[in-house]
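We emphasize that the prediction below concerns an isolated chain of 582 residues; any contacts that depend on oligomerization or on bound cofactors are therefore not represented. The input was used exactly as deposited, without trimming of termini.
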Amino acid sequence: MAEEFSELVKEAVTSEVFAVWFLIGAALVFFMQAGFAMVETGFTRAKNAGNIIMKNLMDFCIGTVVFVLLGFSLMMAQDYVFGIIGIPNLEIFTDFGNFVDNYASSFVFNLVFCATAATIVSGAMAERTRFIAYCIYSGVISLFVYPIEAGWVWNSKSWLVNLGFHDFAGSAAIHTVGGLTALIGAIMVGPRLGKYLKDKSGKVTKVNAIPGHSITLGALGCFILWFGWYGFNGAAAWDGASLASIFLTTTIAPAVATCTTMVFTWIKNGKPDVSMCLNGSLAGLVGITAGCDALDALGATVVGVVSGILVVVAVEFLDLKLHIDDPVGAVGVHLANGVWGTLAVGLLANPAAPAGLEGLFYTGNPRLFGVQLLGIVCIIAWTAVCMTVTFIVLKKTVGLRASAEEEIKGLDLTEHGLPSAYADFVPAVESLDYGFENATVVSGEIPVAEAVPVKKVPEFSDGSPKFTKVEIICKESRFESLKKAMTGLGITGMTVSHVLGCGQQKGKPEYYRGVEVEATLLPKVQVDIVVSKVPVRSVIETAKKVLYTGHIGDGKIFVYDVENVVKVRTGEEGYDALQDVE
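Result of the prediction step, given as a token string:
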């Protein structure tokens, strides 16, 4: 009796621990919403940052509403019609106590999974999709599309589960569905303005790279997603051994994929592509998701190598060959690697792994691979039909794409009334009143009450000293040396600006996500100096000596005549306005 009681206690404690870990995993998956938001925002332009953040917020919130109403009941229904579609019982409304006891943790976990499928679409259609259209199709995914196919994958009463289909954490159910919807949406909404240049016949003659505004933000999102993925893949683990195995494969695959992408882009483009390596990490994570419990370390390595190459090939093929504009690479990451990860289970599953599945390469038995292939084809077909109809209806009714004017201005402003998501950096005239309206305006003789002693303003005539403006454009790296040299000459003031420009060489070509970037506008520093006392020739010769390297891009010096100089604080004009206070 004591032994039986001990076993019952152990089982109860284990069950309780599992339930807690299951919910912690759900929280980690929810945190992935922040990761998706950061990746998508960083890989797109700043004028749409607020719009993307809003979309990532609302696809979870809208998804929650519709998942409560119907989605979960469809997905985890107790009664299935021919194993294909569940019959909703709406128990969350009719018997809440029983629902909490039996389904609450499952509901929360499946809800955050559902939100992930919906949010994948945002990046591929970013910068030109109407907000209302996004809200509607996001709701359709969470209400109907995802619950039915996810029920096939995870409900024990469904036809696909009974065939033996294995998708532990969602390479097919989540990532393939989100990636395919992203592909259909990107095709339907069309490319961003200026992405592809066409001739009169409509043939694409040039592909332009449109770099994202913050690779740092994108990298932060990537790290958040990787962190959350341990909950994504590991939350459903049933014991410590399987959890450890899942964490192991979930670490190996993305690391190998990232290394593979780095080497691949380094060889192909001459330099490792930062943004593509971030995509490589996510591709490895997507690829291992279906078989994280069924593959060994070698299998995870193979998945990572293939994912690291596949994401680059897919992203560049879509962009350069098919001319489908996907700003963040969602199709290459989620669709291509979702399909690959699902099929990899049939090929690489090791019977010694926790899942105990028989992969083709280990046993020679093709059955599992055949089931995986059938499952992924059916999921793709279901998603393609539903989302194509959805996008067509949206296009014909509320409209799918923002107008050209709205796209050029940015969706932050036109959709949400935000001048910018980065308000302190808005290039606008200051509009705040700081209370300086009563400051004394200096004109003519300086009032006695004024604290600054000033000489009488000299008359400006032809006999006054000559003023010359020297404009120096140089490399950013040479500015400090130039500043010290000018100070050494006795220059008491200078205006410094960060500018963009190019010379006759038209910059140096680089690559962004496999697309050549014409770097015709390179970052430079412009230093403006007005001199009178210091000889102009001394300024020019000193600048030449400091800036010269003998390489292209050393800069240029422009010299202009200046009519007058006025010091605002004192009212001094002419020569005196250029001198330091003695």
